[in-house]
Amino acid sequence: AQTVTQSQPEMSVQEAETVTLSCTYDTSESDYYLFWYKQPPSRQMILVIRQEAYKQQNATENRFSVNFQKAAKSFSLKISDSQLGDAAMYFCAYVNNFNKFYFGSGTKLNVKP
Amino acid sequence: KAGVTQTPRYLIKTRGQQVTLSCSPISGHRSVSWYQQTPGQGLQFLFEYFSETQRNKGNFPGRFSGRQFSNSRSEMNVSTLELGDSALYLCASSLESGANQPQHFGDGTRLSIL
Questions:
Q1: In angstroms, rounded to a whole number, what is the distance separating the alpha carbons of residues A3 and B16?
Q2: Is B58 within 8 Å of chain A by CB?
Q3: Which of the residues A83, B3, B60, B92 could staple to B64 if both were Cys, CB 3.0 to 4.6 A apart?
Q4: Tens-digit pLDDT profile for residues B85-100
Q5: In the predicted model, is pLDDT for residue B1 greater than 70?
Q6: Cα gap A47→B98, rounded to integer Å
Q7: In this complex, is the C-beta atom of A32 within 8 Å of any C-beta atom belonging to chain B?
Q8: DSSP assignment, residue A65?
Q9: Any residues with CB less than 8 A from the CB of A110 and at least 6 apart, and which?
Q10: B36 CB within 8 Å of a chain A CB
């Protein structure tokens, strides 16, 4: 069974600094997708970034980028120039070809002014 | 374009009752997925509906069921409620069914069981 592990329950970063959130997953499948979602206190889940497993190039979306290491089954999220609005719970998600989602337990990110 | 709409926002029930939650996807989206979020278990996939058919199902008992209508709106039903069913239930829609489809989430329904 697929499992997704986020080993950092909570992290803090100073505004304008860079922070990296960790995510590892376990799978025997070769084709899958990985996502990072954020959930602010308003509780609506928002897609941050996604990565196709067959692509070696790391995905980037403005200040958000990933470090995808397929062999190591690692998918970390880097947030550059952190802003107060980035404070939220961040969830790493694995999706297989049957479209079943598996989420990590989440990392709470605090941004200090 | 309106986002994913879930109703009601909050719901209080007692053990043994049943409940129906509703989800209206973004216009044009045909896939609807349901998730349960609890502090202890985190986010868990319940099921996905596409074109009125259940495509996928997570590891939940048969008390949890759903359906999708021809306009893609979906309902989730939980029968014989238990205290452990207290959770935030999230619905997400996507254009099509598939792992490459970004999911757009609603604000969720907070279900409390007394």
A1: 32
A2: yes
A3: B60
A4: 999 999 999 998 887 7
A5: no
A6: 16
A7: yes
A8: E
A9: A10, A11, A12, A13, A87
A10: no
Looking at the predicted structure, is the pLDDT value of residue A43 above 80?
Answer: no
Tens of pLDDT, residue by residue over A61-103, are 999 999 999 999 999 999 999 999 999 999 999 988 777 889 9
Answer whether B21's CB lies under 8 Å from B106's CB: no
- B-chain residues near A43 (CB < 8 A): 88, 107-108
Does A44 contact B106 at a Cβ distance shorter than 8 Å? yes
For chain A, report the end-to-end CA distance as a whole number of angstroms. Answer: 41
Alpha carbon of A13: minimum distance to chain B alpha carbons (Å) = 24
Average per-residue pLDDT in chain B?
94
A30 touches chain B (CB under 8 A): no
Q: Chains A, B: CB contacts under 8 A, how many?
A: 58
d(CA A112, CA A84) in angstroms, rounded, equals 7
| pLDDT band per the 50, 70, 90 thresholds, residue A1 | low
Quote the radius of gyration of chain B (alpha carbons, Å): 13
| Residue among A33, A36, A24 at smallest CA distance from A86 | A36
Measuring CA to CA, how many Å separate B80 from each of A88, A95, B39? 34, 30, 22
